[in-house]
Amino acid sequence: MTRALDLLALIGRGAFATLATAGQVAIFALVGLSHLLRPPFHARQFWRHFAEIAYFSLPVVALTALFTGMVLALQSHTGFSRFGAETALPSLVVLSITRELGPVLAGLMVAGRIGAAMAAEIGTMRVTDQIDALTTLSTDPMRYLVVPRLLAGTLALPPLVLVADILGVLGGFLIATLQLGFVPQGYLDATWDVLETMDVVSGLVKAAVFGFLIALMGCWCGYTSRGGAQGVGQATTRAVVAASILILAFDYVLTAAFFKQ
Length: 261
Prior knowledge:
Elements: H1 2-36, H2 43-54, H3 58-80, H4 89-127, H5 130-136, H6 141-178, H7 184-194, H8 197-223, H9 228-258
């Protein structure tokens, strides 16, 4: 009986701690958004982080999308051939890439690269008292450090996902036409026939939300880090893990909202 009560107490403490953390993150996000609506705005910081996300993350996102499209076409053909449904391959590839795999995989790649970098940079500033120095110099740390990153993440990920969509579909097209025997024009016609505007728009909306979540978790984990170099390392890990989980959770929520029956 005592062990059961101890287990329930442990679960309860974990649940309350999770809710408290979620509340702190929500307040942090609201404060950041409120600063976005009021001047001044640090444009140089914004463009630096926008380039870091949109340009320097392009190679890893492009390669991930290209090979994902290739593997998706190859594996789908293997499954469809058992039922004589090979003609459904173009539809599956383009819908899977634009609706789900493009934004989710791009978000996860950027979370691993940018979320960790944001947490490490801000966390180092926190443990070395540079954030306190900004306050002493009459510079709002939220406005200088957090707001440009939140806006850059939100605006930079949709273009990346658009590129990922194109390259993912291209990867499927190359495998289908060069290896699986599809006629190029027939494959393209089947792709255009099934693709709708909402398929692409939903993926871009997801990308904007994922970019905001990545920047939010990177900033919050770095901003609240404690304990020197070890604390910065833990904050970096928390930022990547939390952003990845939130991407998958919000992917379900947004998919249910866009494509509910």
